[in-house]
Amino acid sequence: MSTPDLNLLVTLDVLLAEGSVARAAQRLRLSPSAMSRALARLRETTGDPLLVRAGRGLVATPRALELRERVGQLVEAGKAALSPAETLNLKQLERTFTLRASDGFAETFGPDLITRLGREAPGVRLRFMQKPDKDSTPLRDGTVDLEIGVVGKATGPEVRAQALFRDRFIGAVRKGHALSKGKITAARYAAGRHILVSRRGLDKGPIDDALGALGLTRNIAIIVGGFSTALSIARASDLIAGIPERGTAALRTGMHSFPLPVVTSEITVAMLWHPRLDADSGHSWLRDCVRDICADSR
Length: 298
What we know:
By secondary structure, the chain is of the alpha/beta class. The chain is built from 10 helices and 12 strands. The protein has 3 domains: 7-81, Winged helix-like DNA-binding domain superfamily/Winged helix DNA-binding domain (Arc Repressor Mutant, subunit A), CATH 1.10.10.10; 91-163 and 268-296, 3-Layer(aba) Sandwich (D-Maltodextrin-Binding Protein, domain 2), CATH 3.40.190; 169-265, D-Maltodextrin-Binding Protein, domain 2, CATH 3.40.190.10.
């Protein structure tokens, strides 16, 4: 089956609206003969006369009357699809954006982000999803609109990334913990009982590497999959949590935090999205909001 010429839809729409070959030709800026040829092609394509002679004019056949509304809708939809995007009206925007981020990000930056979105676009809703890994499939298939995290090897090469802030690891313990007083040396720190955070269940991380360079090994009592869990356990025990400073600010309320006595590399937290959303005005506005909120919280 040959592919139909979709340009004929515009011609048919005008013919059915005008009911005259001459007027349709004038409206489309075609010669009467060219319009007659187009009508002949339409008749051949649809298998129907469409317009038939009635006295000195033309009348639409039942098939043409059936097509009139459908064709008009198709033409309007085509025009809308090929027109430049309309200027974004935030007050009328109704949309749900799905963000994949850690609990720490949601609790630390979420309140200010929701406040801004509610002020600028009250019809917008945020859906936060857990971040079990760095797989880019949810961004690729549209399940997630925006992801917050550290770019890793599992991040798809096509994914866009923009840095939000730099972060460093610090220690956190409950109020009244032994490490909440006095100087914290590497040896004193390593001698405590620790919580290791690893989504992949690894038994060591960057802090262990830094301690190892000094000939020290920390006692890891428990391995958990997220910083929120680590802080909850540290708050209710004598265990020590090693967590990113800015990304867990809200989670550490009421706890004692301290700089690590060893040097670990800083991490860059970024927002990631699929390139198909580059020109999406609503998504661009959301990215601006996230970037501004993260910058203002320094």
